[in-house]
User: Fold this.
Amino acid sequence: MKSAPFDYVRPRTVAEASALLAQAGVNAAAIAGGQSLVPMLNLRVAQVDLLVDLSRLDELKAVGETSENLQIGALTTHAAIEDGMIPDPFGGLMRRVASTISYRAVRNYGTIGGSIALADPAADWTGCLIALGAVVRIGGRNGAREQAVEDFVQGTYSTSLGPGEVILGFDVPRSDAPLRCGFAKVARKSGAFANSIAYVVVQGRGGLVTVVLAAAAPRPIVLAGAARHLASGVDSEDALRAAVADDLKTYLPDADPYETRLHISTVVRAARDMRTQT
Amino acid sequence: MHGPSGKVSVGEIAFIANVRQDKLPTGMEPLLEAIGTYEPTISGGVFAYGTHAVVVAVDPDSGVVELLDYVVAEDCGTMINPMIVDGQVQGGIAQGIGTALYEEIPYDELGQPLATTFGDYMVPCAPEIPDVRLAHLISPATATEYGVKGLGEGGAIAPPAAIANAVADAFRSIRASFNETPLTPRRVSEAVDAARHTKDAAA
Ligand SMILES: Cc1cc2nc3c(=O)[nH]c(=O)nc-3n(C[C@H](O)[C@H](O)[C@H](O)COP(=O)(O)OP(=O)(O)OC[C@H]3O[C@@H](n4cnc5c(N)ncnc54)[C@H](O)[C@@H]3O)c2cc1C
Assistant:
């Protein structure tokens, strides 16, 4: 199928884009890489009057590094991250995550901003950015605001993005101690959306531990018990399994026995993967 | 060949038959075409023989099956074009891996088909197909011209049996049984879990 007809504009400034997106009576949508929106338009699960192309907004392309943050522009493609075109002070985690998203053809166009704005429960970046403690920068008619990605993503295809707002980019905090990051994902086949993704981020030795499980629920889940276990320094996979099982009872009470085994196994593999990172 | 010079080149025949049909003797059909049919003396079918061997890694919890090595020895009699033989076996295996691990048209309890696009209907792509190693045996068929045999089935039919047997072998100690294809991660994990419970109950 092909999309129903729509109009198209390519603004030059964020203010202009914002105004176009917020027009009363016009069903407008931002478009970045089009890798989710165009298929949705073609399948007619989405229908718009006006596409506002963000691709010429330089403000959304800026990438920079300070001692505190890595700043990633919303328009940064999965492929640019995969290819190491932007710094990755997170032990190579972002490069590795990028390389497993869909197929290269999708990665060439798909953007990190589009992925977070869409908030697909099975997307790869939401869980990753939450695990890294990232903050999203948002621009709109009333200036800019910031929010933790963890709070920005509210549920299946649901975010805090208001009318006329666009994602400008992300600030990912750097830690003083080197990060050790682990990641594991199960999908039915290459390029398919995942059934379970786990991220483990450890700051230095004996430092803060974050464990995030994605593709399991409408939004990624931060597993506090698993993180406590890993922070305790007790090196037992059985104990980690038990800790994850407890977490799942709390955060995912409706999981069936297979889902429970699946999610436990991705967390355990992510922890193993973290240990192999120096 | 009859005529003053006693010969005419193949090129000239082809040129006249295809381009200068006015030069053809009256009544002769243009173009060079020949059709022949042939039936072997035994017409019940002359099949290829094949053996598939596969090494798999299975995660019992996630149920994910990974193909580590895949070897096929096949005998299609005389190989007319060995490159096409290899290609046909390789392509057949890709199809068979689809049957074994991926392809399925499930319905929900109301009869709604759940796989209506290639987003839901899982077809293996290049990353899912291992580098298959092929060995050829050539025992010419006695009942056919040139000793040829059929070939196409050789790749596609065996993978579900070979892969399911390899997965079963991985769980031989707990006698897990895998009786339904495709061997999706959920089915594999559930079969292992059921066998573990049976074993625990027996112990
Ligand atoms: C076959 C296929 C397989 C895929 N597999 C995976 C996968 O395994 N994992 C995965 O994570 N993703 C996967 N994707 C999705 C892919 O990552 C998309 O690129 C991504 O979800 C959207 O990014 P985009 O730039 O293409 O956004 P678009 O399609 O242009 O837009 C998506 C949505 O975000 C909005 N939007 C885009 N940019 C902004 C912005 N800066 N500010 C505000 N709103 C914005 C749009 O309005 C739209 O609603 C797959 C896609 C395809 C086609």
User: Anything to note?
Assistant: The interface with chain B takes residues 186, 188-192, 195-196, 257-258, 261-262, 264-266 of chain A (CB under 8 Å). Residues 257-276 of chain A form the longest helix (20 residues). The mean pLDDT of chain A is 95. Residues 180-275 of chain A form a domain with the Enolase-like; domain 1 fold (CATH 3.30.390.50).
